Amino acid sequence: MFLSSIFRDTLAGVTDAVIELYNTDGSVGAAKGAGIGAGIYKDNNEAFATLERLDVIEPNTAKQQEYADAYQRWKANLSL
User: Mind telling me which InterPro entries this protein's record contains (predicted)?
Assistant: First the structure.
């Protein structure tokens, strides 16, 4: 999913989070995240140091209101 620029740009904007895209698959990312939680790695930097970072996606603050409006329309349609 993160190979789609539309998906990752929207996710970054909706969550107001910076997304780092690494040259790996989801299973390695999940294992690294579990290693951080289990204390095997001291932090994100140590866990992901051996992976190639492909991109950093910053939230597009100009679109956040558009996303919020779309979410409200979606919620309103759920109750129809």
Answer: ATPase_NBD (IPR043129)
Query: Is the predicted pLDDT of residue 35 greater than 90, yes or no?
Result: yes
User: Tokens 């190979």 label which residue?
Assistant: 3
Q: List, in order, residues 6 or more apart from 75 with CB less than 8 Å away.
A: none
Q: What is the per-residue DSSP string for the chain?
A: -TT-HHHHHHHHHHHT--EEEESS-HHHHHHHHHHHHHTSSSSHHHHHTTSPEEEEE---GGGHHHHHHHHHHHHHHHT-
* Lookup result for tokens 């001291």: 42
> What pLDDT is attached to residue 80?
67
Q: How confident is the model at residue 26 (pLDDT cuts 50, 70, 90)?
A: confident
- CA–CA separation, 15 and 18 (whole Å): 9
